[in-house]
Amino acid sequence: MEAVLAHLRGAIERGEYPVGHKLPSESALGKEFEVSRSVVREALRGLQALGLTVSKTGKGTFVTATGPVENPTFGTYSARDLFEVRRHVEIPVAGYAAVRRSTDDLDLLGHLVERMDLETDNTAWVALDSLFHITIAQASGNPVFGKVIEEIRDALARQSSFLNQLGGRRTRSNTEHREIVTAIASGSEADAVAAMTSHLEHVENALTTIVRPGHTTHQNKDD
Question: For the HTH gntR-type domain, which residue ranges apply (predicted)?
Fold first, then answer.
């Protein structure tokens, strides 16, 4: 899928498929790349997520831009808005969770990271990812934080799916989630804040790399 997506994205950006042009059908692309239609379908979804194409029912997929949008929209919220809120909410929330979490909170977080490690279905993994971040907010002891994350839950899920599809984030996210849980379990507010900060920076960098290859938002010492 990644190879097909990269080829089609490159062709669009080079002008081989100009704006307004209809892409070949799924079956035609499948034959061209010698892959199944499901693989082609996933690649086409990736192009749409990047803002390069639009799919019209019964008509096909049409090119709408020669380059990806810099600020993709996930549901009703833009990536920029999501990151701004997450930095100002989820980072301090992780710190509060470290000093206020209950044994039940830790058990649930541990259970969630175990399930995410084993999960192979992307849709199920994304649902677990959303629940993971909501559980941390609830572990903060302040119900308002939980409501805030619930409000952006759908957008977070859409963004997570986008990053998994185009950025291969799942394995790295699993590792980062475990580091967050370890920090929260240690009771160290500073460690929990650092772990969540690192996680969100990696997520933001992954999105920036997809939209603007060669650029990163943050430079981490361990990158």
Answer: 1-66
